[in-house]
Amino acid sequence: MERQTKVIAIANQKGGVGKTTTVVNLAAALSARKRAVLVIDLDPQAHATLGLGLEKQPGVSMYPVLTGAKDVADVIQPTKWDNLNVIPSEVDLAGAEVELAMRNDRLEVIRNVLSPVKASGAFDYIILDCPPSLGLVMTSALAATDSVLIPSQAEYLAMDGLALITNSIEKLRAGVNPTLELNGIVFTMVNSVARLTTDVIEEVRAHFGEKVYETVIPRNVRVSEAPSMGTPVVFLDARSKGAEAYKAFAWEFMAKNPTRFAAPVPPPPPPAPAAEPPPVPVPDAATEPVAEDAASSSAASLPQG
Question: pTM of the full predicted structure?
């Protein structure tokens, strides 16, 4: 079946909100569900690259593509997991801000570069890991995407970040990318027992409605440990709370963003264990039934086949 490739930027100019962790684990969970995914690491820190088990290599990034030195196909790298590919980052990508500033097509350059990749139908999802800033690279990335997914902590300061990024989306929609949409907001590093967390989530849901994903990502040690091992937590420890949350988020994400497949239905939760039958009361000798009644009572108490 022909793919309908979706290009989605994961962005938040506020750092420390789990943006790259969400990129890595969402991409991994989607690939495990047989979706072909291309991650594009646009952050010079290259954390998505490292989190997917690749090393930084000079000349293997979007930088030589943006400068015209290489074709985009030359820098797409496979990972050790099926269906999961990446365009890595490197330190030189920090110079892309200067390169773009000197170009008249600076807001269209990433879109033009990715256009043949999207048209090829080679991937279900192209996911852009944007740098944590509102510079030209991030703006050009947003101009190239179909929608923007915003990871956010459930804190009041993080709500300022939501306001800034949504304002940027509105400006780009009014100009260079009229079809740009807010894909959604996903809460990360959630402390479910904190009242402040609940208040912030409720306030954001009241404002953004269905754009807020139902799945929330909890704080989890295994999620924090996974990048040092170059492995997404959904592969490192699939039963950890963080991995389970990202897998559930991937199901919800696929349902909202179908490609060549119909909207998926998440697997049902495991059935609850059957309740044990109540104990059969032992009758007093004075009220013990006759033999015929005792037999029928015993039969009625047996588990039903």
Answer: 0.84
